[in-house]
Amino acid sequence: SAQKASKGEPQSFNSFLAKFKTALAKNDKPALASMTKLPFLFDNAELDRAGFIKRFDVLFDRKTKRCFVKAKVVKDGEEQMVFCGETIYVFGKADGEYKFLAISAND
Q1: What is the DSSP string of 8-51?
Q2: Of 55, 60, 75, 100, whose Cβ has the fewest other Cβ atoms within 10 Å?
Q3: Cα-flanking dihedrals φ and ψ of residue 61, to 5°?
């Protein structure tokens, strides 16, 4: 059936992203840290859980949070990307589950 054919990635990524957006809207930093592949590379530093939480407001400022609500997801191979202004938020599988993987510049 059509249902079986569509099982797998899009559905599970969509549910992951919905949880991620909800946690972002609530400013739930611990939940977001648990949805992130750690250590997280940012500004040439490897952030552990505490470091990620500490830098959260830099990673996700107010403008970015507003963008995330409406942003379209772009699939690129195994990764899914959300574009907010000059920044790309990269998601994909790590250890068999979806995680927030990286931030890169939209060049």
Answers
A1: SHHHHHHHHHHHHHHHHHTT-HHHHHHTB-SSEEETTEEE-HHH
A2: 75
A3: -75, 175
Mean pLDDT score across all residues of the chain: 88
pLDDT, average across residues 26-48: 95
Tokens of 105: 């510049």
46-99 tens-digit pLDDT: 999 999 999 999 999 999 999 988 888 999 999 999 999 889 999 999 988 999
pLDDT of res. 69: 85
Separation in Å, CA 54 to CA 58, 90, 101: 9, 20, 17
Under 8 Å between Cβ of 82 and 92: no
- The 8 Å CB, 24+ separation contacts for 88-92 are 91/13, 91/16, 91/17, 91/20
C-alpha to C-alpha distance for 38 and 105, rounded to whole angstroms: 20
| Amino acid, res. 76 | D
